[in-house]
Amino acid sequence: MSASPPLExxxxxxxxxxxxxxxxxxxSYGQLAELAGLGRGARWVGWVLGRLPEGSxxxxxxxxxxxxxxxxxxxxxxxxxxxxxxRAEGVLLHEDRVDMRRYRWNPAESVE
Length: 112
Hints:
- By secondary structure, this protein is mainly alpha-helical.
- The chain has a single domain, classed as Arc Repressor Mutant, subunit A.
- 45% of the residues lie in helices and 7% in strands.
- The chain has helices at residues 7-20, 29-35, 42-50, 77-88, 100-103, 107-110, and strands at 27-28, 63-64, 93-94, 97-98.
- The protein has a two-stranded parallel sheet with strand order 1-2.
- Helix 2 packs across helix 3 (42-50).
- The chain is globular and about 35 Å long.
């Protein structure tokens, strides 16, 4: 059994994958973990994102639950901010869900 990579390289991998998500697209926590090379690390990704410094330029709002729900409650300031940022990028929410078939980012489709 191999040891897990040190925390900082794993965190940097999440940040790099997060920075690559284009405006108007979303990913799930599990998808972000896979993009960062962390396998099934969805909960850990959530932990890392929850500790981003206030005012971070990383597009944390583009990471949502696998079922399309924004990750933060709509009544919280951060939850309102997440929804506002998604709408500003053209991501529509219907009954507080994002259509993952329409808005999920597929990096393979981004390659020309």
